[in-house]
Design brief:
The protein is mainly alpha-helical. The protein has one domain: Serine Threonine Protein Phosphatase 5, Tetratricopeptide repeat. Helices cover about 80% and strands about 0% of the residues. It is built from seven helices and no strands. It has helices at about 1-15, 20-35, 35-55, 55-75, 80-100, 105-125, 130-145. The longest helix has 21 residues, at about 55-75. The radius of gyration is 15 Å and the shape is globular. About 40% of the residues are buried.
């Protein structure tokens, strides 16, 4: 899934969100066919980002909620898996961004707090992982901006 998602993420970062919805949905379908929960979650991150960029906030929130449910389940199944704790943190953050975009500051701040908590767990489990401390600092800035 990562090999399929990577070029789509690059195109999203280059500002091509409007052209990516169909491709993101196709990759999500492949992840579902392969019964790859992590892949489904990651495609829902991308799809949510695309939909949010297009102003379709309710649909974006639904995509982020699906990703959140997947990563919450994976993190609970293997609480010592630092990567799944990180993914859970990112899911909380995506929910926070969606809520903030919808003007729901209370839910946004709650999601950001949960993102920081999960990312702190991931960093503590894998302190040498390059970039995770920076991600934690970024998440903390989301929390303090609200």
């Amino acid at each position: 899934m990562e090999a399929l998602l990577a070029p789509l993420r690059v195109r999203y970062w280059r500002g091509e969100a409007a052209q990516l919805e169909a491709e993101a949905r196709d990759v999500a379908d492949l992840a579902r066919t392969a019964s790859d929960p992590s892949g489904i979650g990651r495609t829902q991150f991308l799809l949510g980002d695309v939909l949010q960029t297009k102003g379709r906030l309710n649909e974006a929130l639904a995509a982020f909620r699906e990703a959140f449910a997947i990563f919450q389940r994976l993190a609970a199944t293997a609480p010592s898996n630092a990567a799944w704790q990180r993914d859970l943190a990112l899911a909380h953050n995506k929910l926070g961004q969606a809520y903030q975009g919808m003007g729901n500051e209370e839910n946004a701040q709650s999601s950001y707090r949960s993102a920081v908590d999960a990312m702190e767990r991931a960093v503590a489990m894998s302190p040498g992982t390059v970039g995770w401390k920076q991600e934690l600092d970024h998440l903390k800035s989301w929390l303090s901006s609200g």
